[in-house]
Design goal:
Helix 7 runs antiparallel to helix 8 and helix 9 packs parallel to helix 10. 35% of the residues are buried. The protein is built from twelve helices and 20 strands. By secondary structure, the chain is α+β, with helices and mostly antiparallel strands. The N terminus is likely disordered. Helices cover 19% and strands 20% of the residues. The longest helix is centred in the last third of the chain and has 20 residues.
């Protein structure tokens, strides 16, 4: 169930027409809660409908329902399906093939035919008017309750399925299951509705001050476990020496970006963080990595959900949010999080890189610009995109993990998320170049034998200058990303292409193991391609295996694109 917590800004907004505001503060009061479980629900009259027996989120998405999210009711009074309700048009068409005409009962005053109806959630007590077709957007978790002025006559909410099918099921028994403020549904609740009675009583007299009753929609089961992604072993010869570890990188799609406007093909309940977080966490745990690099981690989610969950699974971590201020409320800004398994590694050093700060340093110390001049302001505006990077040095936790002939027991890992706008390839290249410059200074100061891995969302496909710089140590002077058309409004932020270099010998883990980069790491209706990479220093690290990205048939089996009910990030 969903609610909204008011903040000080809400008090300044005008009240809605149906809202009332107490002129005086409410008297001292206490709350009581009662949760009830309803009878089983049959949401579709078609006997072959999977939703009659399955309450998996995959079977209840817009994609599974044909994209309409509409329920249909038969209104033909001479049909054997009269008043039967179907979850979508496909089920209605399939059931219509089995219907038959029912003769009228001559003894009936109303002229309504007497016929046997197929099993349906709609009953004779249905409140829906004959001849109407109900339409709705499905929410498998809850509907907001309706407030009523008379606390003595609470009424259930009439949204969602209640509005579609009526409240005939209320005649059956509702079983009380909890009196706690918070109730977490379990397997026994699947396929049923839940009802909450919340009452406020005066602390002094015990008088009932207010009572509200809210009824949820049908409770769905948790999403099935993620698909198993078997590792593909690299085609190399010879035994691998030294310690082994597994690393994963994942852009988890921050809640502030997971909107219906951006992903209209995904159900709004499948976009909610409460739903997606559990799927993402299970997917990470199923991969069983020793190091996890995450991008688009919302600050409040790291504090309230992610760190505790990862810690419970044996990980320690660090977090760095983007440079910009939060989007409205505290914590509503994303960043990067880096975790490592406690039994595998211990943290030796941890740093963060702010590209805004590097831009300021570049403008003043390298180019000699006054940050308040027109040129300085234009330069900084072009580069100040709030992106950041993380940098840690990890050491093997136990000496027994180290190879007797290889004394390397530390590794440097960088995690970053570059600027996303496709119209700023020069900014992405500049950020990559600056990151490599910072890493060169850092790694070389600790000896040339320190292994390096760079993970993250680079928002750059393999045909970009960013990929060329990482993989080839340089960029071609004629590359389009180096020659962005500049004018008075777009300053030239890049040095000569011959100076955009680095000294690392980097390899892409997927390209090395699989022979090529994956077809996609980002799969939406607007873009399908590779943006995420795992880079390693080839002189002292060797990738042994990689988990292939699922193909398009698997990615689209429960949704048009990502995110979907199965894959909770894009």
């Amino acid at each position: 169930m969903y609610g909204k917590k008011l903040d000080d800004r809400d008090l300044e907004k005008p009240l809605a027409a149906h809202s009332k505001k107490c002129r005086e503060p409410p008297p001292a009061h206490e709350f009581s809660y009662r949760w009830f479980r309803g009878p089983p629900v049959e949401p579709c009259a078609f006997e072959g409908c999977p939703r009659r027996t399955s309450f998996s989120p995959h079977d209840w998405s817009m994609h599974a329902l044909g994209g309409t999210g509409c329920s249909l009711q038969c209104v033909s009074t001479q049909s054997s399906l009269f008043k039967c309700t179907f979850c979508n048009s496909s089920c209605f068409v399939s059931a219509w093939k089995t219907q038959y005409t029912v003769a009228k009962d001559r003894g009936s005053r109303s002229g309504t035919p007497v016929h046997r109806r197929a099993a349906s959630f709609g009953t004779d007590d249905d409140k829906s008017t004959d001849g109407s077709v109900a339409s709705f957007r499905r929410n498998p978790y809850s509907d907001d309750g309706s407030a009523h002025s008379n606390p003595g006559t609470p009424r259930a909410n009439s949204g969602g399925y209640n509005n579609l099918y009526g409240d005939g099921e209320q005649k059956e028994e509702w079983l009380e299951i909890s009196r706690d403020q918070l109730y977490i549904p379990n397997g026994e609740d699947c396929g049923r509705k839940l009802k909450l009675e919340a009452a406020a009583y005066s602390s002094e007299t015990g008088e009932l001050l207010m009572l509200r009753v809210v009824k949820t929609d049908i409770v769905l089961a948790r999403a099935p476990d993620p698909i198993k992604r078997s590792l593909v072993t690299a085609k190399t010869t010879g035994a691998a020496g030294g310690a082994r570890f597994r690393i994963a990188t994942y852009n988890v799609l921050a809640e502030i970006y997971a909107t219906q406007q951006q992903y209209p093909y995904c159900d709004f309940w499948a976009l909610s963080w409460d739903y997606r977080f559990q799927n993402i966490l299970r997917e990470i745990m199923d991969a069983s990595p020793d190091v996890v690099c995450l991008q688009e981690v919302q600050a409040d989610h790291y504090e309230n959900h992610l760190y505790a969950a990862m810690s419970e699974h044996g990980y320690e971590g660090v977090y760095k949010q983007k440079t910009r201020q939060s989007m409205g409320l505290a914590g509503k800004v994303d960043g990067c999080a880096l975790f490592w398994r406690r039994t595998k590694f211990v943290l030796i050093e941890s740093y963060s890189i702010e590209f805004n700060e590097l831009a300021q340093r570049q403008a003043t110390q390298v180019m000699g610009l006054n940050p308040r001049s027109d040129d300085g302001v234009s330069f900084l505006n072009r580069l100040s995109k709030d992106n950041i990077a993380q940098l840690v040095v990890l050491e093997l936790a136990q000496p027994s993990m180290r190879s007797s002939r290889d004394q390397i027991n530390q590794i440097c890992i960088a995690n970053t998320h570059l600027y996303s706008n496709k119209d700023f390839p020069d900014v992405k290249l500049w950020q990559t170049w600056q990151l490599l410059q910072e890493l060169e200074t850092f790694v070389l100061a600790r000896g040339t034998q320190l292994p390096l891995m760079i993970c993250g969302d680079f928002n750059s496909t393999p045909d970009t200058a960013v990929y060329d710089l990482l993989s080839r140590q340089t960029v071609h002077p004629g590359h389009p990303d180096v020659n962005v058309n500049t004018d008075d409004s777009i300053p030239n932020i890049l040095p000569d292409a011959m100076n955009i270099t680095h000294s690392f010998q980097l390899g892409s883990a997927y390209q090395t193991v699989m022979g090529d980069e994956p077809k996609v790491t980002n799969f939406t209706t607007n873009f399908k391609g590779v943006l995420d990479y795992i880079w390693y220093s080839a002189q002292n690290l060797r990738p042994l295996s990689a988990a292939p990205i699922p193909d398009e048939a698997i990615l689209t089996r429960n949704g048009e694109a990502l995110p979907s009910t199965e894959f909770s990030s894009d």
